[in-house]
Amino acid sequence: MIKPLLRLWRLLPMWVHVLAAKMVRSRFRAAVAALIFDEQGRVLLFRHTYRKFEWGIPAGSLEYHEQPADAILREFHEETGMQIEIVELLKVVSAREDHHLTVVYLCKITGGEFRPSHEISEMKYFHPDDLPKMLFAEKDLIRWAAENRTTDKHR
Fold this sequence. Notes:
By secondary structure, the chain is of the alpha+beta class.
């Protein structure tokens, strides 16, 4: 039942997504995100089943009374069946357009095997200079992180 609804949601124009989010969500939304780079410097992206722009960074909403670090570990596991470890807090990003605050962590995968969920159908590594069609803000974040990370520090 949920998969057809998610497919239908993806077909709706972006303004409907924004309007629905403003009506349903609180005035200021808090989220978490994980940037995971492999040894070749490629970033891990998820193919979302419900987004207009399918590819995006691993992310999710912060639940009431939940710590951001706990939220990203929970979200990643719920969406993939895999475990990650936080390496460091990278940045806190605020988006004025949709009253959104995202706590971004640099992470690494520590266990588990990918299994698709009703939200995530695939995960794949992409070079920061060859990203798929996705939100510009996420592309900018990936490129910023790729430029500012040092190989020794984040291995």
